Amino acid sequence: MPGSSKRSGGRRGLSANVCGEQVRIALMEARPAGLTLAQLVIATGLSAYYVRKGLNYIKDTAALEHLTPITWTRQDGYRFPVHVEDCISYELGQVESLFNRMSRIITSTIAPHATAHPDDNFAQLALEHISGMKAGLAMIAMAGAARRR
After folding, report:
1. I need a labelling partner for 69 at 20 to 30 A (CA). Which of 10, 36, 100, 122 fits?
2. Across residues 81-103, what is the average pLDDT?
3. pTM over 0.90
4. Apex CA 46: angle with CA 42 and CA 52, to 5°?
């Protein structure tokens, strides 16, 4: 049968945009509150797999299309924040996490590699570029800290 898949028994899964729209509507209806994954499963009638697929679609496409930034916290779950400060707080947390990850990859892998092999162009280039990205993240964090004052 054309278009059927043996792996899925001939059934096709839901597309990302369909899952994303169902999750987006559930989050809009809950606004300003958030919903956990379990609550999104109940609110949308989708499985956890399809809710995650929908959340990824929102993060990749729909958040920008609809100008609805999405955030996540343990306390509130996923939500579309109403206040700009909520977005900034979330963004600064993500920047801090990225900064820490880059710091660790530099100190644990790239810097020792570049130091042990000074003629390795890849190691030197990686060290320079990742260090530059780390510096950029530090500047964002400083701007955020200044804004909070």
Report:
1. 100
2. 93
3. no
4. 100
